[in-house]
Amino acid sequence: MAVLIYLYNFSKFIRWPAKAFNNEDELFVIGVVGKDAFLEISAVLESGKIGTHDISVRYYSKIDEIKGCHLLYIHQKTPDFWQPLIRKLKNSGTVMVGEASTFARQGGMIQFMTIKNKLRFIINFKAVKAAGFDLDSRLLSLALELIK
Predict the structure, then answer these.
(1) 66-89: buried (b, 16+ CB within 10 Å) or exposed (e) per residue?
(2) DSSP-derived 3-state class of residue 98
(3) Which residue in 85, 91, 92, 111 has a CA-CA distance of 20 to 30 Å to 64?
(4) Sign of the alpha-carbon torsion through 21, 58, 44, 11
(5) Pfam families from the xrefs (predicted)?
(6) Phi-psi sector, 36: left (phi>0), alpha (psi -120 to 50), beta
(7) Could you read off the pLDDT of 42-94 as tens digits, one per residue?
(8) How far apart are CA 100 and CA 75, in angstroms?
(9) Residues forming a β-bridge with 130
(10) CATH number of the structural domain 2-147
């Protein structure tokens, strides 16, 4: 549950490139790959908004199903799965978040890690900027590490 709360809060401190939304009424899509444990709380998120956009949570099991996400959480820890996904979505307007130990260092944008039973995160600032996103300084200040 903490992961989805983080994802929701991340989205409030990220500015997407103009091309990421066709209009102000378009859904804000949070995608989840490789884990269905969030099903029971997705209804809570879907009652919220990010700016003017209603939230929709979608679950995926295959790479070729993924499209139209603004924020994608990749639960898969196997690089053979998420590395091609990073390449595919590199300039798609999707913020990619994962928890594999090398996710941020290998092109992922935000990597979760647990330290002393607390969820923390690393931001790959270089990947985020290259994809055209702007991060609020408050989000940057909370990161355990910034990869530049």
Answers:
(1) beebbbbbbbbeeeebbbebbeeb
(2) strand
(3) 111
(4) negative
(5) DUF4154
(6) alpha
(7) 666 777 888 889 998 888 888 889 989 999 999 877 888 889 999 999 888 99
(8) 8
(9) none
(10) 3.40.50
Quick one: pLDDT at residue 28? 94
| Residue positions counted in the chain | 148
Contacts of 52 (CB under 8 A, 6+ apart): 24, 25
pTM of the prediction? Answer: 0.91
Token digits of residue 98: 């994962």
Query: Could you give the residue ranges of the DSSP H alpha helices within the chain?
Result: 2-12, 39-45, 79-89, 125-130, 137-142
Residue among 60, 66, 52 at smallest CA distance from 12: 52
If residue 74 lies in a helix (H) or strand (E), which one and from where to where? strand 71-74
Domain boundaries, the chain: 2-147
Question: Any idea which residue has 């998420």 for tokens?
Answer: 82
Residue 147, CA distances (Å) to 31, 87, 111, 121 in order: 24, 18, 11, 11
Q: By the 8 A CB rule, do 63 and 85 touch?
A: yes
Q: What tokens were used for 124? A: 């790959």
pLDDT in tens, 102-148: 999 999 999 999 999 999 999 999 999 999 999 999 999 999 999 99
